[in-house]
Design goal:
heterodimer; A: mainly alpha; B: Rossmann fold; 5-stranded parallel β-sheet; two-stranded antiparallel ribbon; 5 helices; 7 strands; 15% strand
Chain lengths: 306, 168
Amino acid sequence: MNNLTVHPLIGLLLFPGGLFLLASGLLYEWIDRKLVARFQNRVGPRFIQPLADLVKLLAKEEISPEGVNKPLFFILPVVALAAALTAALYVPMAGFVPAGSFRGDLIITLYLLSVLTLCLGLAGANTISRFAIIGATRTLTQLFSYEAPFLLALLGPAIAAASWQITDVDFYAQQHLWMAVTQPIGFLVALVGLMGKLELPPFDSPEAETEIVAGAMTEYSGRGYALFRLGKNIELVIGLTLVATFYLGGLANPVQFLIKTLGLLVVLAALQSLFARLRIDQTVGLWWRVGALLALAQLLVLFLLR
Amino acid sequence: MDGQAGSPWQQALDKVRDWARINSPWAIHYNSGSCNGCDIEIMATLTPRYDLERFGVKLQGSPRHADILIVTGPVTRLSRERLLRIYDQMPNPKFVIACGSCGLSGGAFRGCYNIVGDISEVIPVSVYIPGCPPRPEAIIYGVVQLLESLKRRNAPAVNLPRQEGAPA
């Protein structure tokens, strides 16, 4: 029942920050791609594929296109990655006690995770490429549509645990029935909200390859693109950890962490290969007409039953 | 990328870089005036039947993300500028694969009033894949030949300095 603790410096450099996060981000990207490939009846990429992609991109030339604000162009990927890495300090990565924890760190974590999306939108708007600008617009539009329902969905367990501190919610979840059972609607909204946050299909219209090339990332090459990809992988791990902590009965040890996050990842991969891409107006409509209302109804039930 | 093989540290770094480059070739596909036969075969190559993601090949939409430019067809006068522009937009190191008979020599269209010529007359080409159209197996073989030559470090490297005034 008790979580293990680590020294702060190790927490910052090795675990759960730094190296461990980078490695687990790459690992989870591979698992995701492999699962989608298997669902599509393919063999799928090899184990080392994300690492090879990363190293290759880092070793490539980085072009700064005409018409961009250069300092902004180079700093945005770094800020995005840093925000994603920082967010990991407040969630129980691998079932350990978070490196830093204070009252209200749930809100901080959610905002740090949004910084990556904001950086993506800024990066797209910074260039003069029309594809990047359309991509940036869609990224930010999507941000405004999923953010509120996702936050409401994560507030459900926090209200049940009567605390906005992630560790408290973790302990509460460990001692009670899985909240995916007691708050099924919130779980659904949180899971689908995570897909919207990570721009996975069917919510990948911000980077729709068939219409707008690569969305906000169109003009990025080499290092910048590698850092953005890495940031997104880390966000995947953190998002899975958050949802597993809140809705799947907490994370008490590394074994639970692996089983629960990988189980969630299988569901995410299945949903990804099941659905076709939604248009951006369909995405927004889905979130505000269905997602937000469902999450609000869940909260209402929670208040009434307290 | 210039191979001053000096210190062991440099050699180790070069080895890692080569390994990553060989294992993660991202491609972009451009039709410079082909009859679409080769394009259909390239699409077939990327389907689950052949599953090139096994080898790390991904089709990218943006030239900024790609390592390999796969060009099909002879170069028409209209598409010459576009081809040069896409080539200039790709970050170094970059490689070009000419796919299909027309890309090799101009094929049936050689000498037409609207044709500049084959692809190597416009941009430097690393690998030629013959066939009208080449089968997916042939295309995979061509990509493997490029990666093999990368491994032997004697790929016709095309790290030309970026031209002044080229669209960056």
